[in-house]
Automatic annotation (TrEMBL):
Modified residues (4-aspartylphosphate): D56
Name of this chain's protein: Chemotaxis protein CheY homolog
Keywords tagged on the record: Phosphoprotein, Two-component regulatory system
Record keyword Translocase present: no
Keyword Phosphoprotein: yes
Alphabetical list of SMART domains matching this protein: REC
GO biological process per UniProt: phosphorelay signal transduction system
SUPFAM superfamilies, sorted: CheY-like
UniProt-listed InterPro entries: Bact_response_regulator (IPR050595), CheY-like_superfamily (IPR011006), Sig_transdc_resp-reg_receiver (IPR001789)
Occurrences of domain Response regulatory (ranges): 4-124
Length: 127
């Protein structure tokens, strides 16, 4: 099974690192789409239907947390898994992302392929 993943981070290096860790996690095959911020992600969604989102918190134009809220307000993405991948480590941020904005899970930087395997496997049925 191939999953389409939208990786949203203002750092190209971090986007590449997320994609590498997902490939190294050996969960499934991914087809990656990249965006530099929430605004660019929303534009890409006009032509894309991702199976899962990986979203950084701190980005220009539209932050990750605002993107999560926006995605959850749209019927077509209300059940699509969203994982925040961020350097924000405070429990208050985790609570805001998951309980208030609607993210499904939270990965703090730095991360490993094993962390991605654990989080993604729990969220996506790989039948």
């Amino acid at each position: 099974m191939k999953l389409k993943a939208l990786v949203v981070d203002d750092s190209r290096t971090m986007r590449l690192l997320v994609m590498k860790n997902l490939r190294d996690a050996d969960i499934t095959t991914f087809d990656f789409v990249e965006a530099e911020d929430g605004e660019q992600a929303m534009l890409k969604l006009k032509k894309q239907q991702p199976d899962i989102f990986f979203v950084d918190w701190n980005m220009p134009k539209m932050s990750g947390i605002d993107l999560v809220r926006k995605l959850r307000s749209l019927e077509r993405f209300k059940d699509t898994p969203i994982i925040m991948v961020t350097s924000e480590k405070g429990m208050d941020k985790v609570i805001e992302a998951i309980d208030k904005a609607g993210a499904d899970d939270y990965i703090s930087k730095p991360f490993t392929p094993q962390i991605f395997r654990s989080k993604v496997s729990r969220l996506v049925e790989l039948g």
